[in-house]
TrEMBL record:
<dbReference type="Pfam" id="PF13561">
    <property type="entry name" value="adh_short_C2"/>
</dbReference>
<dbReference type="InterPro" id="IPR057326">
    <property type="entry name" value="KR_dom"/>
</dbReference>
<dbReference type="InterPro" id="IPR020904">
    <property type="entry name" value="Sc_DH/Rdtase_CS"/>
</dbReference>
<feature type="domain" description="Ketoreductase">
    <location>
        <begin position="208"/>
        <end position="384"/>
    </location>
</feature>
<protein>
    <submittedName>
        <fullName>3-oxoacyl-ACP reductase</fullName>
    </submittedName>
</protein>
<dbReference type="InterPro" id="IPR036291">
    <property type="entry name" value="NAD(P)-bd_dom_sf"/>
</dbReference>
<dbReference type="InterPro" id="IPR002347">
    <property type="entry name" value="SDR_fam"/>
</dbReference>
<comment type="similarity">
    <text>Belongs to the short-chain dehydrogenases/reductases (SDR) family.</text>
</comment>
Amino acid sequence: MADRYQQFTKTPVGKFLVPKLGLPNPVTLRRYRPGQPALDGPALLGAAPGGRLEKVVRTQLADAGIEVLTSEVPDQRYGALVFDATGITDPAQLREMYAFFHPVIRKVGACGRVVVLGTPPEKLDGKERIAQRALEGFVRSVGKELKRGATAQLVYVASGAEEAAESTLRFVLSAKSAFVDAQVIRVGTEGIPDVPKPASWEKPLEGKVALVTGASRGIGAAIAEVFARDGAHVVVLDIPAQGGELSEVANKIGGSALQLDITAEDAPQKLATYLSERHGGVDVVVHNAGITRDKTLGNLKQAGWDAVLTVNLVAQLAINDKLLKDKVLNKNGRIIGVSSIAGIAGNVGQTNYATSKAGVIGMVNDTAPKAAKYGATINAVAPGFIETKMTAAVPLFIREAGRRLSSLGQGGLPVDVAETIAWYANPASAAVNGNVVRVCGQALLGA
């Protein structure tokens, strides 16, 4: 559904009234198009003394076709500000953050990027742990201060994972992360094999097989399209009732359609057999299928509770167990769940839905170490307000609140969720495991 308010802000009347009345003025976000420059302007790179990432990051940015500056240039607008904070070992040294960002933060261009790189606090102790944890407050606040569609991210890179951070750095700096704002991402080393670079960063999933459930429309269809763009053969799955729309998606992307009710008792076995016999296994599994049965708890029938928990969580666990046990998921495979900010903050009338989506986060937490031993990863996205047919049915004032109560002042698009999932799916993201990243424009709801 079109955001009519955002359209109004672009009209002559809107351009006059919006600033006069102090109303939200959401910009048109820069989203990815094949062949476009990685950034709209150079990246200014800085580091605290003793930082361990500056040198490798400079190389990775140059490899991505990004012009790298290491000192301020008068009257220059920057596509990104990137700061290596791994050298900060004492809270007193946090002044290094101020010294780098204060003179240039107003020079971040439209839809620009701020990226702070640190060391996971849980791997440290003493004052260094405290100082590194403090980075989160800095980045979340900067995300709220930035204007014109710019975003801020914090990427914690474990010692030894410096080279493995490239796919994440490329993602957070690119237009693919348009609606991801003020997130904390961890790049680790536990149980992770050597991280392969894709033969082509434009086609990182070339030769891979990906499964997307709930793929007949909306976010699921967008995921399938982005995967196909990135080179994968995509198996799109949905219930038989959605067979017509599912076939349209499969035909559009040159993929395969599989009609299956994932809640059926024999669904995991049928799916495992299909993927093994037809495709020799699967490289990426996206659990996108989900339903809502919204009622306040006192009005919610047991059937509505059971249906939502079964589709959104229980069926996914059964499928994961089968694919891992029978080794249908290939080495360096990916499992990706779709949670929701409702699973983080809760929502009125959605006790069943929020419970299931919080359970998806629990699934990631529990499965990540097991997946690492298997040579795979599991992560999740947690979308906020995304413009779909489902949100178009939300009452007007609730819909407007969902759009405006974020740092970017607008709803996201299905492709924003799809691009984040594609980053997880990238073979070069093998060191990204156990993360839950919100795709919400830094919604003011929840953490």
